[in-house]
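[stage:ingest] chain + small molecule (carboxymethyl coenzyme *A)
[stage:ingest] validated
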Amino acid sequence: MSETAKIIINGKEYELPVITGSEGEQAIDIAQLRALTGVITLDNGFTSTGSCQSAITFLDGEKGILRYRGYRIEELCQKSSFLEVAYLLIHGELPNAAQEAEWEHHITHHSMIKEDIKRYWDAWPQTAHPMALLSSVTSALSTFYEDSHNVYDPRQVEISIHRLIAKMPTVAAYAYKKSQGQPYMYPINRYNYIERFLYMMFALPVEEYKMNPVLVKALNQILILHADHEQNCSTSTVRLVGSSHANLFASIAAGVTALWGPLHGGANQAVLEMLDKIHADGGNVDKWVAKAKDKDDNFKLMGFGHRVYKNFDPRALILKETADEVLATLGVVDPRLEIARKLEEIALSDPYFIERKLYPNVDFYSGIIYKAMGFPTKMFTVLFALGRLPGWIAQWKEMIESKETKIGRPRQIYTGATERPWVPVNKR
Ligand code: CMC
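[stage:predict] done
[stage:export] tokens:
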């Protein structure tokens, strides 16, 4: 017999179905609640509200588990390429050899962007934040492909997916080149996805570019770790925008914007800015930890805490090792990294952080790695977006293909003035 939940409202009892997921998670299905009772639920920040059923990513915040389509993140990081993981997320299964070759072929051969697009950002200031460029160019790309906006045509969706995954690194790298006043570097087909991006970022037309395999491996791993994280702020945004049947480019552009905020993807930039500030202030870590604990001070330790992970962030565990490897290989000596290590040490042993289950999250280590790799701070969140793109696409596709999907339209409890008469200006 299936489970139900009972709720008593104004003395009357109602029974609601309980849904159980494949990992035993349970939810009360309240879809009929308002129709039955006239009452709605209220859940600021959606801490207890599921927005969909999804077969893509499983996350257990208490146990620190993260799996894509059933595969452990730790194993994918060791054995897969980012493009393979993208295929897995979007199509549900790891590709066989022929599928993988075809997938890579499509992504490789869609990586150029129209020359006109480059002129589009000539109008932008050189200091433009690359996340602004990324979201607006992603949206602008849709204007070149208006023949593939039908969200219910599988071929149009497929080619939009190829174009987005292939072109996003080119857009990201060009945004960086623009900020440096350097010439844009065209994508090169003989490179794999990660190599191609590093080349477009860091190569110059005047000299040979030397690929560093340690950086290629680290970036592959970081992008895999960011590839999906179920119903977070940006993914929920992509689903919500997509539920209005906005085209895939427009939905992804909205996700980029949501990711930009410092409480979400923007935290990796905020971590480095915080380390800069502490360094400029003389490196007194204790002082800044005290500020983070002070209720009257709105300073937070960026890169610490997570809405879902309450014991450790499995992505951060992997990245901590990657950070050690990258820093050792590159021989980077940076006082900010010392500050980071001290912060990590203090926060892991301080009762304030222990009681609140605040641990270093993925952004704490990814920011440090990006810095060591030579990415400017403003590019950090763009790298998060490159990693999250397959997850956004997979979630959008699942939403569009689901028979359950309706346009997203939450309700509210109104707390404003009740009806009152209009008052002439001389009487206000
Ligand atoms: N530094 C100091 N105190 C903190 C921090 C922090 N980074 N994070 C949470 N707290 C305190 C918070 O003040 C509250 O204390 P109290 O119970 O005394 O009022 C308690 O811990 C619970 O925090 P919360 O704000 O209710 O937690 P939340 O689930 O709403 O927020 C968070 C999660 C990630 C937004 C928050 O921890 C934060 O702002 N962290 C810093 C930003 C950051 O690193 N974000 C990246 C998240 S990982 C990447 C991603 O998936 O987007």
